[in-house]
Amino acid sequence: MEIVNPQTSFWWKVPLNINGVGMMGVLEKQGISFSRHGYLEAKQHGGDADAIGRAIRRRHRPLSQSVLTSAREEYTKREVRPFPRYFIIEPTSYCNRKCFFCPITVTNRYGAAMKWEHFTKLMDECAENDVYGISLYQLGESMLWRGKEGVLKKNISHMVSMAKWAGFRAVNISTNGDVDNLDLLLDCGLSDLFFSIDGTTPEVYSENRPSTKPNDVNAFERTVEHTRAFLEAKDREGLTDPWCRLQIINNHLTAPQVVDFIRYWIEVPGVDDVFVKHLDEMGAWLGNTVVSAEESAQKRERVSQMPCQHLWAIGSMTATGKFNACCHDALTELTTADANIDNMTFADWWNGDYMNALRGEHIGLQTGGEVRTPCRNCLERDPWLGI
């Protein structure tokens, strides 16, 4: 995958000096990772920190590469599996941040919370199929989700446990870290936890991730405190899961801070890797408020005839229980009136007329065809499988 904003992001062509260890980082689907494990091994005993880190990550998630390879082969052949291996689910479309690069700022379903019965109904269906991974986040801050079953209160850890019961081998959550219930994720079976802290100073952080609370002057410090408390608890208990990733988005604001961000978080016990994330343009919903038209044009040349990988690889359900063709679909346009967990199975939606017609449109791009909106203006067709 190419980064969308090549003119304003941070680029490097030689190894970075990470506290005395040279690291290029490891290219992944949506960014570049810097392994704490590889860093510590190289610092103590020498060796290639990136190669060591890559090997440790693959040992920790031994099935991920083979599943990804199969998905890539199916996409290349334009084969549709009867049921997706991977899901992106939206527990809530409410957030305590209003990041300018996130389409939650324009979504038409802000503040919705998924019903527990909707989630469990989908998990029951997943349990009958061969599934691998699920992301329990979409537009909102998942740690803020609350639900109930009868009189029993539920929180996000119950979703994690239910997903593991349904057979998902990899369950992950992304959080902004500014919540006081992260401890729920210490022993519920969560595979991966991504902390998105986009800056090393309060000023840059607040520009990237402004709080929904007015005059929230301590948001950055509080977020770092919550995050470090969780990481310390994980380290203290000797846990290997969840794999914890500290993430910084690579844009014009963070570019001068990327190296300092890596240097800081890679030293913190409980961290597994630090990730420099490629910036999604989100132009179909946000126009050119995230990256310039000139930068977008560079990527458009590369993906203009590319069928979206999401349509062959990822199943999605919003906080309202709607099935939609793409998790980026902030205005819930890529769906039909009856596409709801109450009305049909996910398999019926995945293999139904709408999804097949949409895939056909995308295949037609290669011969000069057109696709509907928002796909027409979307450049996020390539991050899902990393090709």
Structure description:
The structure is a single chain. The chain is 33% helix and 14% strand. It has 387 residues and is an alpha/beta fold. The chain has a nine-stranded mixed beta sheet. Strands 1-2 form a two-stranded antiparallel sheet. The radius of gyration is 20 Å and the shape is globular.
Largest sheet: 9 strands, mixed
The 3D shape can be described as globular
Please provide the ordered H/E string of secondary-structure elements. Answer: EEEEHHHEHEEEHEEHHEHEHHHEHH
Mean of residue pLDDT?
95
Strands of the widest sheet, in order across it, are 3-4-12-11-10-9-6-5-13
pLDDT under 50 segments (min length 5)?
Answer: none
Which structural class do the helices and strands define?
Answer: alpha/beta
- Ends distance: 6 Å
Say how many strands there are. 13
- Helix tally equals 13
Roughly what fraction of the amino acids lie in strands?
A: 5-15%
Helix content, binned percent: 25-40%
User: Radius of gyration, Cα only, in angstroms?
Assistant: 20 Å
Task: Chart the SSEs and their pairings.
Layout lengths: L15 E3 L2 E3 L2 E2 L3 E5 H10 L3 H12 L3 H14 L8 E4 L26 H11 L6 E3 L11 E3 L2 E3 L1 H10 L4 E6 L16 E5 L5 H7 L10 H18 L6 E7 L8 H8 L7 E5 L5 H4 L6 H11 L6 H4 E4 L28 H5 L2 H12 L23
Parallel strand pairs: 5-6, 5-13, 6-9, 9-10, 10-11, 11-12
Antiparallel strand pairs: 1-2, 3-4, 4-12, 7-8
